[in-house]
Write a structure and sequence with these properties.
The complex is a heterodimer of chains A (336) and B (411).
Chain A lengths: L1 H5 L6 H5 L2 H19 L10 H26 L7 H16 L6 H24 L5 H20 L9 H8 L1 E2 L2 E2 H19 L1 H11 L1 H6 L4 H27 L11 H10 L11 H21 L3 H18 L2 H14 L1
Antiparallel strand pairs in A: 1-2
Chain B lengths: L1 H15 L18 E7 L5 H15 L3 H4 E7 L4 H13 L4 E4 L8 H9 L3 E5 L9 E4 L5 H13 L3 E7 L5 H14 L5 E8 L4 H14 L5 E4 L3 H11 L7 E2 L4 H8 L1 H6 L4 E3 L4 H14 L12 E3 L4 E3 L42 H6 L49
The chains are: A mainly alpha (336), B alpha/beta (411).
């Protein structure tokens, strides 16, 4: 504001033509690219396509569950149950498929549906009973995890379908199949979140739930559906993780809960809801994974690794704030 | 003497205001005349922990123990404080014995000491406590780290780039394993550790951490791993489906089957399966029951560290089990029976002939089995390991001596 009054005559229309969203997303991917190139200093095997392939492959799991998390955050919620729901997806696929390809076409939808139902419970708790999202989803997560523990007796049985296991290891046109899946998922997710009526309604609810309600949007139903989608995405992640590891473990979802939130926020979404793109989230997930591979290659102690991970996430959040972009844009335009 | 002690326990329980008086009846047994035994676990959520617990449950249901033992399972999570308070209530409830996976090697000492004074028998398995009145039954002194490290060095001819896939940071078990391994690796200047990461003894974490390390070092020559080793194989195949390298690890079914698989061997896999056996819990439970039943003399304090023999299965010794037990020297079950994360060392034909697959998976007794006495000489004293199974003690000079394998390449 003070800028504008100080230089009242400057033409800022050009600057406004560059959408802030585009700048945010481009910056994240720029940082990722920079990190990959710079990582050549760490290891001579880095900086190439094979590293990019590993990063895309490893971040795909995070991207799948972060999509749901992103939608939940968009409507001012938070889903802490995804770690447990990932476990449900994994445990159910190992148990129900039991090492055979038979009936895959109904087993997968059944698992996704079961997970979505968990999400519906979350959504109903949040909307109908007004339980704060983090309490509701945490409680449901604990219950669901304990069900898994009871159901498996601690040892998840069985194997995912061999065809899924093969899929995770296969390549099309020289690129791993899960990376294609990631690309398709990113395209579809972007379409849903940013360009569909459904996504726009969610943004409206996230921006101002009361206003959205007054405007005639079914806020409750939208919110419940978002939690259902989040749980289904987590279940999907669980199925793929089990296929990747050729079996399920009860801790398999733990490593995805906080990173899924971090990916969304680093990706430029507002933790307060109402703002964010899925492409940004994908970039956030890639950034986190790139960082992890570089830190792993640095060969430093576990404590320092975690400190640096936290520091980079903080730094990214501080640098990716709107005000920074605004001044960046202003500088860019002035240079023309 | 026991009676007076039990009375003391009763009085204490009453003082503490507990309502569980019924459990502390006189004659050192529960009201229905059974021994009251607690099974205290850290964390039920991985295959290893649940198999170890199931083994004890199955033994407690096997005649004649089904008539004489009342087993109560308590899960304390991962926090030593929780296990301390659980031990306290078990002591107050008049426990005769506590067979337990200890969460910490020193945090539990005070409560264990107190329990010993109340005549409660403490039997720790796998992990250990440094309080000398407790019995520690553990494979740790068997030297997993140094023996597997030497096996890897032998496979690599004394030189190459390797990864270390470790356990849980700060855990004394992980440190003992790694210290032993480093004792060997440090002797070989040709061995270069290019990446070291914590995999939390979990298959999937191991797989992802190994994948990350492989991104930087696709030319790795071998991997030294603790539990979770099957994830190493998966990650290697993921990076290049035609190239495997020697891997040493623990006892998962997936790893053993891979070691014995000619296709995998053709791709370069070699190694040895060793490490922690869930069967330790059953061994601990049987020693405890023999002491309770008066069939075995209690050991004097300071001599209660007992070594569980280190499992050692190189690739050429892997043998598939046709039935549901370890018979005729077989040591792994096929994919049709157990998941890949199943820890194969659940049985021990000499020490635990009572068990079968259903015991390990579901905690059920084997049909027709009865408890067999432990063979002569089964209980062997373990060497001192300062900070692990004793406090003010010194490790023997030969603590890292190889016991399972000889060096075929000289440094």
């Amino acid at each position: 504001m003070s800028d504008q009054t100080a230089i009242p005559l400057e033409d800022t229309r050009k600057a406004q033509r560059i959408s802030p969203t585009v700048v945010t997303v481009a910056t994240i991917y720029g940082i990722v690219a920079l990190m990959i190139v710079a990582s050549r200093l760490v290891s001579p095997s880095f900086g190439g396509l094979s590293q990019l392939e590993t990063i895309l492959y490893l971040s795909s799991f995070l991207v799948f569950c972060a999509f749901g998390q992103g939608l939940v955050i968009l409507v001012r919620g938070l889903d802490l149950s995804i770690a447990s729901v990932i476990t449900v997806g994994g445990v159910l696929s190992a148990a129900l498929m039991d090492g055979s390809n038979a009936g895959l076409f109904y087993v997968i939808p059944a698992i996704l549906l079961a997970c979505a139902l968990i999400g519906v419970v979350n959504g109903i708790g949040v909307t109908v009973f007004n339980v704060p999202p983090f309490i509701m989803t945490m409680a449901v997560g604990i219950i669901v995890y304990s069900l898994c523990l009871g159901f498996t007796g601690g040892t998840p049985r069985g194997f995912p379908a061999p065809v899924l296991n093969d899929f995770m290891g296969s390549r099309f046109i020289g690129i791993p199949a899960p990376v294609w899946l990631l690309i398709a998922f990113a395209a579809m997710g972007t379409l849903v979140q940013s360009f569909s009526p459904f996504g726009r309604k969610l943004t409206a609810v996230g921006n101002n739930p009361e206003a959205a309600y007054v405007a005639g949007l079914p806020s409750r139903r939208l919110t419940v559906s978002v939690y259902a989608i989040s749980a289904a995405c987590a279940g999907f992640t669980g199925i793929l993780l089990a296929s990747y590891a050729n079996g399920a473990t009860l801790r398999m979802g733990d490593d995805y809960l906080l990173p899924s939130i971090a990916a969304v926020v680093v990706g430029g979404s507002s933790i307060l809801g109402g703002k964010g793109t899925f492409l940004g989230t994908v970039g956030g997930a890639m950034l986190l994974t790139t960082l992890a591979t570089i830190l792993s290659a640095l060969g430093i102690g576990q404590g320092w690794k975690t400190i640096m991970e936290g520091a980079v996430i903080l730094l990214a959040l501080i640098l990716l704030r709107d005000t920074v972009f605004d001044s960046l844009r202003a500088v860019l335009v002035r240079k023309d | 003497m026991k009676v007076t002690n039990k009375l003391k326990t009763l009085a204490l329980a009453a003082l503490a205001g507990t309502t569980m008086l019924s459990a502390g009846a006189a004659d050192a047994k529960t009201a229905d005349g059974k021994w009251l035994i607690y099974l205290s676990l850290s964390y039920s959520g991985n295959a290893w922990q649940s198999e170890a617990a199931n083994i004890v449950k199955a033994l407690a249901k096997t005649p004649p123990y089904n008539e004489t033992v009342e087993l109560v399972e308590v899960i304390s999570g991962t926090d030593p404080q929780a296990q301390i308070s659980d031990y306290e209530s078990m002591i107050a409830n008049g426990a005769d014995g506590i067979v337990s996976f200890p969460i910490s090697s020193n945090a539990l000492n005070r409560v264990v000491r107190r329990g010993c004074q109340e005549d409660v028998l403490f039997f720790m398995y796998d992990g250990t406590v440094t309080e000398q009145c407790a019995y520690n039954i553990s494979f740790l002194s068997g030297g997993f780290g140094e023996n597997t490290a030497q096996a890897l060095v032998n496979e690599l001819g004394g030189k190459g780039k390797i990864f270390l896939s470790r356990g849980v940071p700060g855990n004394s078990v992980d440190e003992r394993h790694t210290d032993g391994a480093m004792h060997i690796f440090n002797q070989y200047p040709g061995i270069e550790i290019v990446s070291e990461y914590y995999s939390y003894w979990d298959d999937r974490t191991t797989q992802q951490e190994t994948a990350k390390a492989l991104a930087a070092h696709p030319d790795v020559d071998g991997v030294w791993a603790q539990a979770g080793e099957y994830g190493v194989i998966q990650a290697l195949l993921q990076a290049d489906e035609n190239r495997l390298v020697p891997v040493t690890g623990e006892n998962s079914a997936g790893f053993r089957l891979a070691l014995a698989n000619p296709d995998m061997q053709a791709k370069g896999l070699a190694g040895v399966s060793s490490g922690s056996a869930p069967a330790q819990s059953g061994f601990a439970f049987k020693i405890m029951m023999e002491i309770l039943n008066g069939e075995r003399e209690p050991l004097p304090e300071g001599e209660r560290n007992i070594e569980y023999p280190l499992p050692w299965v190189p690739a050429d010794a892997v043998k598939m089990c046709e039935g549901d037990t370890f018979e005729d020297g077989c040591n792994v079950f096929g994919e049709d029976k157990v998941p890949s994360s199943f820890v194969s060392e659940v049985f021990n034909p000499e020490l635990l002939p009572e068990l079968s697959l259903t015991s390990a998976l579901d905690g059920n007794p084997t049909e027709g089995a009865t408890i067999q006495p432990l063979p002569e000489g089964a209980v062997k004293r373990a060497p001192d390991m300062p900070g692990i199974n004793c406090r003010s003690c010194e490790a023997p000079d030969n603590q890292y001596d190889l016991t399972k394998i000889e060096a075929t390449v000289q440094p």
